[in-house]
Amino acid sequence: MNDLTLNRNRGILLIWILLAVACQLTAQTPAKVIRLKAVTGMQFDKVQLTALPGENIQIVLINQDDMPHNLLITNPGKRQAVVEAALALEEKGPEMNFIPASPDILGSMPVVYPGDSISLVFKTPEKPGAYPYVCSYPGHGFFMYGVLYVGNNLQIPDLEKDTHIPESRRVPIKQAASSVTKHQHSTGDERLHPYDTTPPYLYRAFLEGSGLASIAVRLPGKLAFCWDATACKLQFAWAGDFLDNTDFWHGHKNAYAKVLGEIFYRDGTNYPLRIGHKDAAPTVEYKGYRIVNRYPEFRYIVNGFEVRELIKEQSDGLGLIREFHIPAGIEPVWFVYSGNDGMRYESKTGKFSGNNQISFSPQEAQFFTITMTR
Amino acid sequence: MKYIASNLLVFFLFISTILAQSGRTGSYIIEDITMPEHLDAETGGVAFFPDGRLVACFTRGEVMTYNPETKEWKMFAEGLHEPLGLLVESNSEIIVLQRPELTRIKDTDNDGIADRYDKISDSFGISGNYHEFNYGPVKDKDGNYYIALNTASSGGGFRANPRGELNLMGRDSTTGKKQMYSVVPYRGWVLKITPDGKTIPFASGFRSPNGIGFDDQENLFVTDNQSDWVETSTFSHVQEGKFYGHPASLVWDQKMKGINPFQLPIETLAQLRTRPAVYFPHGIMANSPAEPLYISSDQRFGPFAGQFLVGEMNHERIVRVMLEKVKGEFQGACVPFYDKKGIHFGNNRLAFAPDGSLYIGQITHGWLGAKGLQRIVYTGKTPMEIATMKVTKKGFEFTFTQPLANSNAIQKSDIALRHYYYKYQKKPFTEHIDKSNQSDIQEVEIRNVTFSKDRKKMMVQLPDLKAGYVYEFKLNGIRGKEGEVLENNLICYTLNNLLP
Questions:
Q1: CA-based, 20 to 30 A from B24: which of A227, B33, B144, B253?
Q2: Residues in chain A with pLDDT values less than 70
Q3: Closest residue of B to A10, CA-based?
Q4: Is B281 within 8 Å of A94 when comparing Cβ atoms?
Q5: What contacts A77, CB < 8 A, 6 or more positions away?
Q6: Rounded to whole angstroms, how far apart are CA atoms B79 and A82?
Q7: What pTM did the predictor assign?
């Protein structure tokens, strides 16, 4: 019983455990342990199990999903009927662990909560056959099941041809493994959308190291940057692959879109623009963006003045070109940068001053370009 | 001729196959919409442009259009953060609610692809908790938008850099770890947003309000999902300044400044709370209700004008809601619609097409559900259904969509009736999240059943009526004029008020 883990104190569970212990004590041979995981997407990690007739097995269900699950073993061909009987429990379902009274249920374990595990000790039937195991939590049973093959000298069908397992799992093992842990890298080698995503393109997403309203932009030349739509500034830039959105898109757990590749720049200033006043960090408000040749041009307000900013790649992949428009033409503007962010700053207009600032006259500020090179 | 004849044969075979799939009566036909390749069709919103094209948003950030005639899909907008609702403004402009903001998205150069994404409002908090979903928008006749904000899940924490003020009193971390929480502004609220972006807290007390919709009289309704403080899922008439039961959101109520809502006595919360108009009994009617869609009198969707259809995630059905006003408050009944007749799980978003057919957008998003879109078409043949259910002085009156064939044969014993109520309470710490407690469940004896002369109405008399109870009827043995069985015989009436 070393495998038995119980993280919740529930009377009803205790009964199961006692039963399990009782079964095991009476068994002649120690039970064969089968570890089974409930994983994301309402699935068991394994969909084919094997055992000998009359064998004592111990199924340990480890719930790695974020929904509760149970496990029932049924007579051959009775999965659907048992699942429907579980649904018919309606509001009585939870207190019965979604286990209906049915002679076709040969073994069962109660609901296992996310992060918990429960084991079921079970003596397999003497009669060889394909015995389904299924989660009977409402609705899950239509997708979340597998088959326990009982027999001597078993011939297990290939996954592709096994009609006892869900259709989605009837794929060769290699592919099956990747379909369970499939990662949504935006590297261009897999279509993640029903349209072309040749850079530039963007995702609004949660990104670590930026505000919770952020915009990740993929640029040509294997570059990318994160623009913070709360702080209204470029937060960081990276080179290499774009994002892994697997967990982020899953939607059922706290997750970030993961930056792939190497971050080569992080903004090291309070705020990179000053309008009218050189020293105080300004008040900002995000307004939106428009798409220009698939590049976003951000629009925001700094100290009451509209700013438009469009960020492009340097064609050699070594940095970014930032085009600013401050159309009012009323106040002088300073672009401020950190001296130790590893970037070299250039501008064809404006005046560089010693303390990492470039100043622009109101007219110059109507359109200026900052080139950042690593 | 031969060619035409064989084509006709194929056509009739096709039609009869469709009819065979569409249930006994043939009043409705359902079909799956073919989705474009490489789309993870987790549907967050569905609507129609005036020109007849469908527009839908999906959780990976796509906004796609679909031409029902050519069956062609096209990208309209991309890159959004978990869009879960959209509203059409014109053939080239939509409003989308995504995680960070309400956004106006417009195709200004008429190439069919949006090129402007303008913020309307981001004046609400984000803690980074995965469960802070945003629902809506819907629009009133003055052009104001209404959105509903989910609370955060106790199944996840929040980030160190939330957007908006952090207030930890919106979270009960001592005795109620399972309670949803609101640590940033307006989680658990319905907000009103003026066309120029002014954001006004409108109503509070929601847990997981994955459905918001107007009727044709500017009455706003919101669905909420069962669990802590929401004993069973609800359908509420939402009015400005009112509180609907989940305490977390009250930390953002100006009148409650400095008060920890989780420490308020249940009696106080109960006094503040406005009851839902309709309860969806959990495990019986709906476990996870979604968007309500009003059936206006110009819709061609069968004999249900003036009622709502409501999406349901956990059953292969949608739910129909019928309301009446008693003592100035809405109350009424819910009944399954198109139950287990080919509809999938995960019925999240509903929209009527210009041709009168109903489109259903499905979602899983990590829960039980399905992906894609389905379409239900009314064939014009009146279904055998309960048209309306109303409370009377002594019981209930059912009106059917057709005269009954066999009113003489219907006995009291054909009608199974239970009543129960849902207690407003804090969920015990140890209780299963899906556990829904019905209090005082009792079989109710029926005193008398009578019928109107035209055999369309059935009056059920009871020994007494209890305000605050749900009356759950199963009507057996009822047949339409051509012998049709009643399509959906389960109906639950929320009796908030007795007739005066």
A1: B33
A2: 1-29, 172-190
A3: B430
A4: no
A5: none
A6: 43
A7: 0.86
